[in-house]
Amino acid sequence: MLNMTVIAVGKLNATYFRQAAAEYEKRLGAFCRIRIVELAEYQITEKNASAAQIEKALEKEGAAILAAVPKNAVLVALCIEGGQLSSEKLARKLSDWAVSGASDAAFVIGSSHGLSPQVKKKATLRLSMSEMTFPHQLARVMLLEQLYRACCIEAGRPYHK
Fold first, then answer.
1. I need a labelling partner for 99 at 20 to 30 A (CA). Which of 1, 42, 74, 117 fits?
2. What percentage of the chain exceeds 90 in pLDDT?
3. DSSP string of the chain?
4. What range does the domain containing 89 cover?
5. What is the pLDDT of residues 92-137, one digit of tens each?
6. What is the CATH number of the domain that holds 107?
7. What is the pTM of this model?
8. What is the pLDDT of residue 160?
């Protein structure tokens, strides 16, 4: 199985999100080396930010994200315009990457403004969790749960039912 890194812009502020994330990190430890990298969201001080201000913020966040990606990692950008995968198909993707020689996969969750175009461009896979919108903190927990589920599927464990 791959070493997995989750790169997230922003912190988990709510205790229940931190606890849920910690539980899935612990469970994932049986299958892979999991690492969480939290990056600061670029602060925009104006209440109604202009497109140029948001673009600047995304550019700065994007540079920090790309600097945090492990060398030669498969990069997965979580973004609304990405494709959707079932849990079984995600499990197969992770397995295929590992079999093809990849040792690391990095999953990126952007800020409340989204994800920079340069990160999306470098991504091997653009992945959307749903057509619905979720809070970034919940998205991290959902991603960790799906990675754990994918690992269980590949290992033939019954969790995924």
1. 117
2. 86
3. --EEEEEEES---SHHHHHHHHHHHHHHTTTS-EEEEEEPPPP--SSS--HHHHHHHHHHHHHHHHHHSPTT-EEEEEEEEEE---HHHHHHHHHHHHHTT--EEEEEE-BTTB--HHHHHH-SEEE-S-SS---HHHHHHHHHHHHHHHHHHHHT-GGG-
4. 3-160
5. 999 999 999 999 999 999 998 999 999 999 999 999 999 998 888 9
6. 3.40.1280.10
7. 0.94
8. 59
